[in-house]
């Protein structure tokens, strides 16, 4: 699993185990960072009061709960994810906030049998790039959504358009074993960087009226927050625990040195360069 994570190929096993636990630990920071994109997805997808919505790769449920508020007590939202650690956090948040029209399901949305098409919409904030067979997964989601229902998701554009994501591994590389390069088409964070590939997947899996537009959202972070995300989550978060303390210290120092050059007025300006994708069942 280490080689997959190191290469950026974050498979289901990563999210079920180390990845899900680490994301749950830092969920407050991640929610704040990702909320602007999640709000845009929810606003674009909003099927109205009484609707039934599927939230794919729901994580700890931020977008699930937002959609539950939008569809109201007569509606229902099902959040599906492979990470039980994140799902349990979502359930706790729903109870704490008194949101009762949600259900959190531990399963792979790409293969789970949803039965008859029962959803008015499917949404995802950064959850669909990790399907191991995207054509089959999106065909499965298509079967879950009623005819005329909607699909709305946000996914990352290229690493080159999100340059700060490259800094940690570039800084750490001299101190670590040679890292395998991720396959061009994932699964992984940037697996859907090619809009033509995304359109082809959706066309082949039965979705209609596919629209893909750039979505650029400011997501500034403090230096400490970006260091936490860089060292605890993603590739370095899985690589560093297996290294000796001397290597870990060198990596931390190298990443910190690189990031300090980006600080402006105590914060590091950052933009999430994404695609906002919509389609009709």
**Average pLDDT for all residues:** 91
Give the overall shape, derived from the CA principal axes: globular
Helical stretch tally: 12
Strand content: 15-25%
* CA-atom Rg in angstroms: 19 Å
* Relative helix content: 40-55%
What is the makeup of the main sheet?
A: 7 strands, mixed
Alpha-beta content class: alpha/beta
Low-pLDDT stretches: 1-9
Give the strand order, joined by hyphens, for the main sheet. Answer: 3-2-1-4-5-9-6
Helix and strand sequence: HHHHEHEHEEHEHHEEHHHEE
This entry's quaternary arrangement is single chain
Per DSSP E runs of 2 or more residues, the count of β-strands stands at 9
Terminus-to-terminus distance: 35 Å
Notes on the protein architecture:
The structure is a single chain. With 281 residues, this protein is α/β, with parallel strands linked by helices. Helices cover 43% and strands 21% of the residues. It has twelve helices and nine strands. The strands form two sheets. It has a seven-stranded mixed beta sheet with strand order 3-2-1-4-5-9-6, sandwiched between helices. A two-stranded antiparallel ribbon has the order 7-8. β1, α5 and β2 form a beta-alpha-beta unit. α3 packs parallel to α6 and α10 crosses α12. The N terminus is likely disordered.
């Amino acid at each position: 699993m280490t080689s997959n994570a190191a290469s950026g190929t974050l498979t289901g096993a990563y999210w079920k185990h180390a990845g899900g636990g680490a994301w749950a630990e830092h969920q407050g920071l991640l929610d704040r960072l990702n909320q602007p994109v999640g709000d845009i997805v929810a606003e674009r997808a909003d099927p109205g009061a009484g609707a039934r919505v599927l939230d794919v790769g729901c994580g700890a449920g931020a977008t699930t709960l937002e959609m539950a508020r939008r569809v109201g007590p007569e509606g229902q939202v099902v959040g599906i994810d492979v990470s039980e650690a994140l799902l349990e956090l979502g359930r706790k948040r729903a109870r704490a906030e008194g949101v009762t029209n949600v259900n959190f399901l531990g399963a792979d949305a790409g293969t789970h049998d949803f039965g008859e098409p029962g959803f008015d919409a499917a949404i995802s904030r950064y959850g669909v790039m990790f399907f191991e067979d995207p054509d089959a997964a999106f065909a499965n989601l298509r079967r879950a959504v009623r005819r005329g229902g909607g699909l709305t998701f946000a996914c990352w554009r290229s690493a080159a358009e999100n340059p700060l994501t490259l800094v940690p591994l570039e800084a750490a590389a001299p101190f670590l074993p040679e890292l395998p390069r991720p396959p061009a088409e994932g699964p992984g964070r940037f697996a859907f960087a090619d809009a033509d590939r995304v359109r082809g997947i959706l066309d082949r899996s039965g979705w209609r009226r596919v629209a893909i537009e750039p979505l650029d959202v400011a997501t500034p972070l403090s230096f400490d927050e970006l260091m936490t995300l860089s060292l605890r989550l993603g590739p370095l978060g899985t690589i560093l625990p297996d290294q000796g303390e001397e290597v870990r210290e060198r990596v931390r120092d190298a990443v910190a040195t690189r990031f300090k050059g980006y600080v402006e007025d105590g914060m590091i300006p950052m933009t999430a360069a994404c695609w906002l994708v919509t389609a009709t069942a």
